[in-house]
Amino acid sequence: MPHDPLRTLLPSILPVDLENFLFNHLPGLFFLGVILGSLTGLLIGGVELALAGLLITGIPFLVASFYLMLRNDVSTYPIIRNVPKSVTSIRTFSIAYLVGISYLAIVPDRGYEFFILLTGMFLLAFLSTFQHYPERGIGYAIATLLISTYSVTLREPLFIGGTDILPHLSYTLHIVNTGTVIPDWVSNYANFPLYHIFGAIFIQISGRLPEKSYFIIIGAVVATTPLLIYGISSRITKNRRLSCQVSIVYATLPTVVYAGLYSITRTFAFIGFLLLLWIFLVENRYQNWAWSILLGVSVLFTLLVHQVSYLQILFVLVLLWGVSKAMTSGRPLITVFEILFFVTPFCAYWIYNAEGLIGRLIVRQVLGTSATPTSGGIDTSLPIFHIFEYLNTYLLGLFLLVGIVISFRSNNERIRIVALFTLICTPFIMYSPIHVINRLSAFRLDRLILLLSLFTALFVTLGMKDIIDQLSGIKYNYSMYFIVVLFSIFAFTSLLGGIYQDTAADSNKIGWQGPTEHLEAEEQAALEHTLLIPSGRQIRTDGISYKYLTSRLPMGEFTERQQTLYDIKTIRNPNDVMGEYLIRHEAREKRGELVLGYYGGDYIYEGTLNIGEHDRVYTSGDSAILHRVNASSMGKPASTTQ
């Protein structure tokens, strides 16, 4: 065997029996980590940061630590095998599905009752995995993910606002109208157009309303990802039933539900990542040339669909290679050749075709962050979360940590490798000090969380099943109730919103903290009226309105002349609002939801804008277009009120 310096070095660093060491000592290390983390937060950010960390992350770590210390190491009850067929039948699920569709047709806002119904559908999917054909549950999960997605994306104006959906729709419509991708000056996505080409092709084929066609196909693609999760999980666990359960838990994760609701390029990059993992986990994959071709196609797809996800995927693959290299005596899950095969086209493409992107990203993400004014506002580092968000992160953290620790006793080497990998990634998956450092916002950890959702789902499932197993050992006859209660609470809180994504922020019936990402109809009407402002004028507004306007002016067609039609910028300093025209949303202002700063907004402002003297030239509910008296003396549109 050739000399391997890494293999020679590892024994001096790692314990001889790493898996047993982690299994036996992680519960105590979790407890110690909470203490050290609280002290670190106290030193760095004072009492506020320490308490925030303890409240958000400390609780699941402490509960997991005590549970693992008290856990009976010997399984006393095999988890339930039989569920009444009538409960999980296609007829039962179809009735629930029709009720959900009827609800959306009658009720304008998604209320708690709709999310309870979605939870029931996911529960039917999960219980179906205990039947003779567990794969039926995946079909239920896909159908439920579809109705969850379409309940937002097909109902305007809920799918627009603070997200990047509208710009991507504009780029797609530009391809439909002109047959060419967007110019370089419009966006960095001129070099990464595959997502928009895909959407444009479907719009052309369907011949339906562009927005509806766009969201129908994008939502359908995202909803089918549980099939890929099943394929990858099967190659890791070698367990058909468990893989089905992992797929269903995956479909309920907040980051996955959010990816369906706001389906944009990073979601398709995630699909490319899943394809790569699926290929890498095939034994003897290069004995069949078809796998090599599929690998090449997947690499190119991932490269051309999104700007920066490639870097995060590379980070995940390298880390997975390092962990598998350290823990196995055979070939690691991913080889160095495969990583190089992944890196080479990336470097070549960025150097020869997208060379200006790196500089623009540095200016936008790093320099823009450092230049952001926060006087009079609240730093988004320490947000206040909804009670359901706290509950979801507690359950997710508890299940995740328990699942990781018990996996170190598994006879399956792949599960042990992935367990250590996921343990290392826990600071990214769970809310941690990494997420409150503003400078790290350039790395977009929310995208990394999506990439890690497969591993999150695997160990959340294992942890949940272990807790149910332990509870069933105490109350044998209550095992069915335990699984219904635990899964339902987790799924319900996920559908309402996790720490990172407010998956139900479109609902006016749920009191969320922080700015809503969608636009109300009155807000949209005011923004649409901005189209009547004479060209060449200065327009200032908040970050959410900025994203809308820069996509709507013009919509679907980009030319050099149209580039300079308007001077639209976000308000940077709330005490010095410059510009001829100001678009103001007083309802958001009163709720402390204004997003201000550079490049569509960098911080949340809770105060009142100092707008100076002005004339109100258009009103739509609590939204208005204002013309500043002390600005340019150019003419203004006729005043109207709606």
TrEMBL record:
Q: Where is the signal peptide?
A: none
* Coiled-coil ranges (or none): none
Q: Which controlled-vocabulary keywords does the entry list?
A: Membrane, Transmembrane, Transmembrane helix
| Residues spanning the membrane | 21-44, 50-70, 90-106, 112-130, 137-154, 214-236, 248-281, 293-321, 333-352, 390-408, 415-436, 448-468, 480-500
Per the UniProt record, the source organism is Halosimplex rubrum
> In the record, what lineage is assigned to the organism producing the protein?
Archaea, Methanobacteriati, Methanobacteriota, Stenosarchaea group, Halobacteria
This one is known as Uncharacterized protein
